[in-house]
Amino acid sequence: MTAILDQLRAAPRSVLGKLPGVSSDDDDSRRPLPVSGMLAAAVTLGVGLAALTTLTLVGWIAAPRGTLGAGLPGVFRTAAQLWLAAHHAGFAIPSGRVGLLPLGLTILPAVLLYRAGRWMARDADLRLRLPARLPKNSPKEQAGARRKAQLVVVVQAGVSLAAPYALLAGLIALVASNEITQPFIGEALLSHFVLAFLAGSLATARMIGPWRVMLRLLPERVRALTVGTAVATAVLLVAGLALVLIAFVLNFGQVKELSDVLSPGFVGGVLLALLQLLYLLNAVIWAFSYIAGPGFAIGADTLVAPTGVQLGTVPSLPLLGALPESGPVPALMMAVIAVPFAAGAVAGVMVARISPSPSYEAAPLWGFLTGVSTGLVAGALAALSGGPIGGGRLAAIGPSPWEVALSVALEVGVAAGISAGVANLLLLNKRARAPLDKAAAPVRKAGAAIAKAASKVGLAESDPRPLPGHWMDATEADTQEIPVIRDDWQDEHASAEAETLAQARPRLAEPDPSPRPPRKDIVDESDDRGGHVIYVDPYAWDRD
């Protein structure tokens, strides 16, 4: 598709360059942005319809006659209906309404629109007209004005691609109508416009600069909420995918049994596998609705939730064989309810890191708002993943959007508020200590320099040894004899008191003729030098 668009881009310039009196400068031959958007929209529709027509033709050859309509017009009409279904545009049938559409099919037009948007941005030279970065030391007002101008250009590019794309989709909806299925033209116009606007805006922003620059186009608070919501939603989707794969492995026997009952053959089996793969994203959203608590329904008066399973007759789609049996759910499955709280905790930390709040009370509020925005996204995904298949019992399939939105908002919001508050508090404390550490760093550096210089001139030892301590120090115990306390020791307090009283006797009194007995409370058994070993009394610290 890009090659076709590049040829369309180069053809008018080559023709204009050959005409006399016409300048071939890029500014003169460059098409306006709406014209580039119209060309991109037309090529996207053509390529998408060609791919789906080829797929439908293969199914028409393999399917029984009359299933996909009579002849090639019926094949093309079916391909057009599939293209509308890829944009989630519903159909009216005699028995009701068809709204359960495969979300995996939306990937095809989304990818084509994204590539068309990038070509449109190159064709209009948006990167040259509006560069992503300004020179260094640019004024803040100039940077703000440039960001606003970039946002305006992104919106203009999205509208330039989405407006003609939606108008062409209205024509396709008129062509795809027949006696059985009638597309809703209003839904077709709205769905095509929204998908083309989102893809074109993202592609244009990506062409202006890298992903980080694209996020910086948003204000800081909005950027923090956007990243936090994206992180929480991604965690829920990954958990849903893991739950679907586990259920598929555990109930593989039922899935294989349903496939054998259908007996689609080789080509039909390939198309059936492709159809289930397209509905995989729907199943993932149903699974994270199960994780959030409300669960989902497969028909009226049915429920698949952590609190219990109540099923009736389900459609014969092998993927639905992975559903659990009716009855109470094992207590271990209740642990999946902790996943939304974990997603909220991660999202709250991201919000606090991107946009710390100067006040302690604001951070939990922004974390809770992240949970609210995540709930809105989850509710929108739940609404897109479900829908009716006709009337009667199959009129209610999928999760309830408002229940999923409320549950996810509360669970993710509470966890995000707590984690954002704690993370913001830690960041503020770290920033408060940073100036003190920064101010003390030069003093420590100067002290180390002075000590190093003093050691070189001899004023200080380059390798100072530790000062000696008392005998109980480990550095001194290797060189000093340790006195041994014998079993017949006397109370040192009583001995000290006796010595003090003896010294306090009057000088006039006759001296005591009996010699003073040696102290037996502390004896150094290692003395082999006739009493000439100096020892330290370990109990001298308690004496006056």
The CA-CA distance between the termini, in Å, is: 100 Å
- Fraction in beta strands: under 5%
Oligomeric status: single chain
Q: Using the alpha-carbon principal axes, give the shape.
A: globular
Helix content bin: 55-70%
What is the number of E strands? 8
Biased composition (Basic and acidic residues): 518-531
Keywords: Membrane, Transmembrane, Transmembrane helix
InterPro entries: DUF6350 (IPR045931)
Pfam families: DUF6350 (PF19877)
Description of the structure:
With 544 residues, the chain is mostly helical. The protein has three domains: 1-14 and 27-133 and 148-217, no CATH class; 219-456, no CATH class; 478-500 and 517-544, no CATH class. It is built from 17 helices and eight strands. The protein has helices at residues 2-18, 26-29, 33-62, 71-86, 107-123, 126-129, 140-175, 185-208, 211-216, 220-250, 252-262, 265-278, 280-292, 338-354, 362-385, 401-457, 492-503, and strands at residues 91-93, 96-98, 182-183, 297-298, 303-305, 308-310, 389-390, 397-398. A hairpin with a 2-residue loop joins strand 1 (91-93) and strand 2 (96-98). Helix 10 (220-250) crosses helix 13 (280-292) and helix 13 packs across helix 15. It is globular and about 125 Å long. 30% of the residues are buried. Residues 11-28 and 466-477 have low confidence and may be disordered.
